[in-house]
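Supplementary Note 3. Input sequence used for the single-chain structure prediction.
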Amino acid sequence: MKENNVNINHDDKESTTTKYMIYADFNIDGLVEKPDVVGALFGQTEGLLSEELELRELQKGGKVGRIQVYLSVRGGKTKGSISIPSSLDKVETSILAAAIETVDRIGPCNAKISIRRIEDIRKEKMKKIRERASELLQKWNTEASQESSHLTDEVLKAARIGGITHFGQLPAGPELNDSDTIIIVEGRADIAACLRAGVRNTVAVQGASVPKSVINLTKRKTVIAFLDGDRGGDLILKELLMYADIDYIARAPKGKEVEELKPDEIIDQLSKKVPIEIASFVSEIHASEIVQKAIKRKAAKKIPIAKAPYSKERVERQPIKKEAEKARAPPPPRGSPRKTQPAPKDYRTDSRQTTRRAPPRDSRRRYPQRDRRPSYRDSRPRTFKPKIPEELMPIVKEIDNKEKQEGIFLNEKLKKVKRVPVEAIYDEIKKSKGVTKVVFDGVITQRLIDACNEKKIDVIIGARMADVEKRPANLKVFTFA
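The predicted structure, written as C-alpha cells, is reproduced below.
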C-alpha cells in the first residue's frame, strides 16, 4: 500500500494562533486525488453555516490553517485522514467539525467522513512551559547564594537529589540499575519530583508507547507503576499492563500529576501501592482481559536470586563446612566401639569432590528462564533507540548546554549555515536553502517534519517529540532529552 502526504494551503499565511486541531478519517468508494478531497470540503460545506463560519472565509481570515490530507489506495478504494488547525473557540470549532462530517461525496464517488477527535494543542505548550519553569526555578535556587547557617542543609539536599541519568535514550534515576525494584513514571519531570523525595530507582517511558528496553527490564525486576491520576495515566497503565510485567500499581490522587506532588505526598502514594490482582482502579480503565493476562505473566515471572556470600543454601552445599561441624561434635560415650575415621580428603586435589560442591557452571540449570531470553546486560545495547550520529554529537552538546533555546542549521559538509531561536524554527526552515540537517532544543512536531520533508532535509534532532502520525522514509528523526 502506497501512502502519500500532501499539505493543501489556500492561504500562504500560516496561522500562529492555532488552539485546536480537528482530526477526521474518510473512506471513498473509488479512486480520487488529494485536491478532490479539499475541494469537496470547501464546496459541500458552503452555504450550510453562517457567513462567519464559511470555511473559505475562515481560511482567508487566518482563523483556520492549512488543511493536511493523507491518503492511500487499495483495492480500487481510497481511505485516509484529514487534519485542520483552528483558532476558533470550542463551540465554533465543534460546529465546523460537524459540518465537515456532512460531506458525502468526493469527486465522482460516494464518501464517508467521520471526526476522530478534536485536540487542544495548547496542553502540550502548557506542559512544556511547566517543565521549563521547573528547570529554571531549580537552577535559580541552585545558583542563589546561601547563608553559612544553611550550608549543611543544602549539601544534604543536593546529595539526596543527585542528578537524572539515562537508561538508553530514556531519563532515569541514578540507582535504576542497582536496585532490585524499579518505579516506572511518565516523564522527566516525574523523575525530578521523585528525586526530591529521595526515590532514585525510577525510569520514564516518555509517553503512552512503552519502549522495548523497559519491557525487557520489567521481566527481571520487581516493578511499580507510579502514574498520574488523569486520563493520560490511564492510557499508560493500560499499555504497561498489555506488554510489561507489572507487580504493583500506585497512582497520584485523582486529577493530579506525579510532578505536582510534594515529597511527603510521593512517599505516601508509593506506600499505598497495591498488587495488580487487587487494584480497584484498574476496572475504571475497562481492561479486565488485559489485567488477567498481566496477572498470569506476573505469576510466571521468575526474578533471579542475588548471590549471597553467606546464604543458607551456599553453606549447605560446601562439604568443608560439614566436616568442620563433625569435628566440633561431642565424642562418643565410653565403652562404645571406636570407628576408624577416614582421613579427610584434600578438596583442592580431589576433582570429583570439587565437582560435587562447586556450583554448576551452566547457569541454565539454576535459571532455566535464561535459555529463553538474554540477560539484562547482554540485551541492553540491542534495545536502545537509534543513536544520534557521532559527527552530530558536538552540535547536540553545544545546543543542550546553553540556557537560551536555539537551533542550528547545517549543510551537507556539516558546516553551520545559521543559528535561529526555537520559536522561529518553523519559519526559518520554510525559508532555508541548502540546509540538510537541523539541530534544535525544542519539541519535534508533525508540522516541523512536514516542513523538513518539503525542503529535502534528511536529519532533524530535537529535545523531545510530540505525537507524530506520519514520518517520511527519507527523514531521520532523533531526540536527546
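The CA atoms of residues 407 and 425 lie 7 Å apart. The first strand starts at residue 3 and ends at 8.
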